[in-house]
Amino acid sequence: MTDATPDRRGGRQLPTADELRIWRDFIETTAALSSRLESRLQSDSALSTGDYAVLLALSEAQGQAMRSSELATHIGWERSRLSHHLGRMERRGLIRRQECATVPRGSEVLLTTAGAEAFRGATFPHLRAIRELFVDALTPDQIVAAGEIAAALRARLDVLRPH
Amino acid sequence: MTDATPDRRGGRQLPTADELRIWRDFIETTAALSSRLESRLQSDSALSTGDYAVLLALSEAQGQAMRSSELATHIGWERSRLSHHLGRMERRGLIRRQECATVPRGSEVLLTTAGAEAFRGATFPHLRAIRELFVDALTPDQIVAAGEIAAALRARLDVLRPH
DNA sequence: TTAGCATCATTGACATGTCAATCGGTAGGC
DNA sequence: GCCTACCGATTGACATGTCAATGATGCTAA
């Protein structure tokens, strides 16, 4: 990556072939990693990573319950996505919904016994898979670098808020 | 990250809190990045990244055509996924399918004029978005590191082939 | 020959995600 | 008091992805 070319950065330049290759490797590999984690979790525990995120948040919440919109913010989902997902999880008996006592027109999401058990059973295999597929794949330096890269990308996404 | 603890790596240890935090940042940020790219491409060109991958492969192919299974291998998709996607793209007039002359029971996928034009129109904005959201977000060193991290993760995924 | 098997591609059933519309209720502005 | 605008949450329509089953066709071995 030389600085000798006239309009290197800060310019209207398109990515170089090298940059594009790295981009493709990076984005495809991280997608494959997510997908592998997803199927590991699925076969280890019959939960999706979405289920896991919801159950984790509820497990750590006061009284194992949260307001729906709070939960959406906490795990960073759109509300309609959460609503659909909670409907599916409720049908499977993992959570329950009831009117919120304190907030008018609020809905409270509760962890059921079955949900808590499913989460307990999923935790260990899931963390083990994260170690095997991510932590053990990288050197300690690379893990730090991955954190910095994520932070830099996140900052860029935040600056370039969608229009 | 010290080596002083008894069972550091190569062990049955779960990830540390730091490792887990980095893991979450990393996987969520890359997912958000994909999603942002997807919506940029969508609003710039009315194409999805899936459409783009198919059109890119066909554009670069001999005669702007490929056998279906060749195409699936080339872009790394399952065949059923490709088949569904081609059906949708065919309905929109971006590609055409016809029986393959050389291979029995093979199907040949052809780029239409509309497909080629849609791809031409999408290329520049898409590459610009990759520059803005990825290349410009990172230092040159970080881009190199991202490439190495992707390679290491990919190698790990390949070693731990699903069962 | 023909039964069984492998291969290429498609299909159907279903899980998941997004976007826009809706529903019910609360709160201001007048 | 009433109209309106907003807010939390859900819903419907649709795009996309996976898995398992199904055609359709050629290959091979008894």
Automatic annotation (TrEMBL), chains A, B:
One of its GO terms (biological process) is response to stress. SUPFAM superfamilies: Winged helix' DNA-binding domain. Residues 19-161 form the HTH marR-type domain. SMART domains: HTH_MARR. The lineage of its organism: Bacteria, Bacillati, Actinomycetota, Actinomycetes, Micromonosporales. It comes from the Bacteria. This is MarR family transcriptional regulator. Signal peptide: none annotated. Pfam families: MarR_2 (PF12802). GO terms for molecular function: DNA-binding transcription factor activity.
